[in-house]
Amino acid sequence: MTSARLHGRWGVRRAGATVCAALFMALAASVVPTMSTAQDYRGWATTSVQMVELRPLGLDTVPRADVVTDANGRLLYNGIEVSCVLPTICTGYLPLAEEQTVAATQDLSLTYWGLGVEGLSVTALARVRLHAGSDLMWPRSDDEFDAMLAYAQLQRGPMRVRAGRQDLRSGLGLSAFDGVSASYTYGSARAEIYGGRSLARGLREPSSSALRALDDFFLDHGVLLVGGSASMRTAGILTTARYHREILWDRSSLVSERASLDATTVLSRVRVTGSVDYDFSFEQVGKAELTASAPLRDGRWLVELSARRYVPYFDLSTIWGFFEPVSYSEAVARLGWSPSASLGVWVAGGARSYGATGATVILEPMKDNGWRADVGVQYAPAPRWTLDGRYQLEWGPGAFLSSVDGTARYRVNDRVSVSATALSFQQIEEYRLGQGRAFGAGATADYALTDRVGLSGGFSMIRHRDGGNVFTSPWNQGRAWTSLRFDLGGDPGMGRRPGG
Amino acid sequence: MMVRASHARIWVLVAGALVGLGGLAVSANAVQEAPFPHEAHQGLFPLCAGCHEGVPAGDESDFYPDPASCRGCHDGVREEAVTWSGPTGRVDNVSYSHLEHDAALEASGDPAQSCASCHILPGGQRMAVADEIQLGTCWGCHAHAATEHQVDASCDACHVPLARTAFDLARIEALPLPSDHEPGSFLERDHGVAVQENASRCATCHTQERCVSCHVDTERDVIADFPAAPPGMRLPVAVAHYNEPTTHRAGQWLTLHGAEASRAECATCHTSNDCTSCHVIPLPAAVLSMPSRDDVVAPGVRVAGRAPDSHESVFFMNAHTGLGAAGAETCATCHQETFCVSCHDAPVGNGYHPSSFLARHTADAFGRDAECSSCHSTQVFCRECHVQVGLVSSGRLGPGYHDDGPVWLIRHGQAARQNLESCASCHQQVDCTQCHGVLGAFKVSPHTVGFDAERAWGRSPRTCLACHIGNPLNE
């Protein structure tokens, strides 16, 4: 049971605190532009609310009389395998009643210069969460407040020093820590070192406290992170090498020790990007990828080829890595075609093969390869209209997805746009029975109230339709959301929001 | 000899005065009533300096006689009354100084020039003063290799900068266009070299205002030192014209320009505002050195931020991971870190995943087209939701979630090694140790034959103790 449930169905007590915090942040965001005497500031505030409705599964009982035996000898109830230990009652995982949850999020991001010291700035990205509804709860919404980023930075010429909660985006993925980093740039070369308390991957919270609550094996110790990177642009090749080491505070165990090398360059008109990482903990090569991308015929064609190796990464604080997960190797080809400004078509396909697992084979070996395919088109039949379509196929061991969707977007004017989406898919979940098909539809609307304030919202509905030997309606989902965004300052990077 | 020399010097000075005030065709713009009839007064004035008294001393206010002195004879009684008032409003850009020229001649030991040398036609009588200067006299000493006067000559030998003239707008617009000022190439490429080689030549017809009408950076020495127009001088309207350098047309220019960026290289056309249409604080040193749009006259090219070429690829959303990893600082020139979060960790709406991803994420997650755990904690984020919707181990050994084949429990090893991240998104470690630990029900080893237990114990003995009692090497 999560902590949220301990506070009751509506989480009223925490809701009050959260609303107050959200209001405070919104107020701060609104007054900063007028009261500021800063050299500059950048930021944004986003208030979002979403409602999700879905049908959970639960262990339930069914009459033995309604259970049939299939050709493989399995006991099935409406296509769901059940266990019949008792003579009259069987048990199995069945869809429960639909549940709804409402999750609200307030984000505030602010970077502020002008603290009386040349080159000194502070950056904060805070998130306040609130939830309401049934016992169902959106992930992490019981965590009322997250300081996702919070650091002070001093930039003096080629030297940069940061202190506080910060992110690292690198060939080793996204990681975060509370500590200090320092970098120095000399010409086209840059070196950085960092160290501090490591935060749990994907959580931005101390490893021990964040993970211990859910899994008894997570060690009750903080984790110390040290690392560094060196980047250099030479002969048109941009290269970054990174070393990253985590140990327990008491230095009794290594948590992770990895290195990565990433490089990109343009050879003639071909962009080549490569990356590889190495895990010293398990003494094995981790993920690796080499991609070459070339525009052809005045850029109307784009060809991209990738070779990729993927292996799950687990640090030494869990037992998972000692189970020796295997890698897969994948070859991917992508082709894009844009004969005109109003039409773009792309297709991508990949095949992957898993390494030998060394696991004991019972009955018959499982599938050890997979395929992906992706086809998309974007067409603007008129200046205000955009049509998007996409077909996606994912076919691997234990999972399958065949999905098609289409979106029509209409720009009413410079400030208002609306879109409608329809989709259908079939999927097999992880080694799970089920051949149903789901259909869905949705709509969104975006309204730029001013150049700095945008309101958007939408809804989607997915309904499962039986397709023979299936269980009932687990894919039924409803979702509605709205978001109000307020930009502070003029961050040019913020002008291009992917997918927006 | 002394008398002759002095006489000659006077003639030179007078001639120079006339050259300066009424001479060179290229600059003459006299506003004068009918020329003084010198020949008619030939018998009255034995010396030029008698009337042009200020010429030998270089006193321009006394170059011409007082018109009142005419009335000494032309009083309407003895002679017909006249209204001659002398030359007025004469405007030119000639730099000739009778005084300096005379001194130079004397210093060179060649004071042979007289007023007549320049002001009297060859063979003319003493007072047969011509309307135009005899330039041939100048060339006698100032001969140069110029094949074309307005291109090759050293303009400042004879002319003052335009900024020191009193030319009006019409006069400026009437200045001749040198033949080397070819449309296009001269403005685009050659004028920079020309001004470096001989700025005074440019200044003959231009003022600093012409430079700064295009050039953003006015602190460059050659511009800062260029003569500026005096207050009130009306200048032709100059329309700023910026040609895109060939370097900018290279495919990766937008990505690679930072290595060459500097005020010297960029500020001819760009202000810092152009830079900050993409770059964000902290700004690179080159940007900080650039002039601001508020502080310059020229409009600059006013570029607007646009995405680099790499961003235009339809596959960029897949590719930007590698680009960012290779050069995160390149990304940081346009994007702050919070920008990444606004998409990768967007609570709702158009984030990293498509809108219906929740319903369809199973296969994507299973195939790991992207590394979910880079952003999500599979043990917390994924499992927190999966637990609530019933996708969780209950500890029972009967048929459960993985129901597509028989005896899943004893077959799951291969699937687990292929997709262990997915396992961890629903299962806790204790689910595994129920069977795999030395204290588990079946004591099934999760390790392969080649597993290096010694290495594992040496690096993280605590984790080994999750399944083992004591050092597994001793078991």
- What string gives the helices and strands of chain B in order? HHHHHHHHHHHHHHHHHHHHHHHHH
The two chains with the largest interface, and their residue counts, are: A-B, 184 and 128 residues
Low-pLDDT stretches of chain B are 1-32
Which regions of chain A are unreliable across 5 or more consecutive residues at pLDDT < 50?
Answer: 1-18, 31-38, 494-500
User: How does the major sheet of chain A shape up?
Assistant: 22 strands, antiparallel, barrel
Strand content of chain A: over 45%
Which structural class do you get from the secondary structure elements of chain B?
Answer: mainly alpha
Distance between the termini of chain A: 37 Å
| Percent range of helical residues of chain B | 25-40%
Rg from alpha-carbon coordinates of chain B: 45 Å
Overall shape of chain A: it is globular
Kindly list the characteristics that best describe this protein.
heterodimer, A: 500 residues, mainly beta, Porin, 22-stranded antiparallel beta barrel, 3 helices, disordered C terminus, B: 475 residues, mainly alpha, 3 domains, 25 helices, 38% helix
Summarize this entry quickly.
The complex is a heterodimer of chains A (500) and B (475). Chain A is mainly β.
Tell me what you see in this structure.
The complex is a heterodimer of chains A (500) and B (475). In chain A, 7% of the residues lie in helices and 60% in strands. The two termini of chain A are 37 Å apart. Mean pLDDT of chain A is 83; it is low at 1-18, 31-38 and 494-500. Chain A has helices at residues 3-6, 12-35, 207-212; strands spanning 40-54, 57-63, 68-69, 75-77, 80-81, 89-95, 99-113, 120-133, 145-156, 159-170, 173-186, 189-199, 223-234, 237-248, 254-267, 270-279, 284-296, 301-310, 328-340, 343-354, 369-382, 385-396, 399-411, 416-428, 437-448, 453-465, 477-488. Chain A has a 22-stranded antiparallel β-barrel. Chain A has a 3-stranded antiparallel beta sheet with strand order 3-4-5, with no helix packed on it. Chain A is globular, with a radius of gyration of 26 Å. Chain A has 500 residues and is mainly beta. Chain A has a domain at 369-495: monomeric porin ompg (Porin), CATH 2.40.160. Chain B is mainly α and 475 residues long. Chain B folds into 3 domains: 2-143, no CATH class; 149-241, no CATH class; 361-474, no CATH class. Helix content of chain B is 38%, strand content 0%. Chain B has 25 helices and no strands. The model of chain B is unreliable at 1-32 (pLDDT under 50). The interface between A and B is large, with 184 and 128 residues.
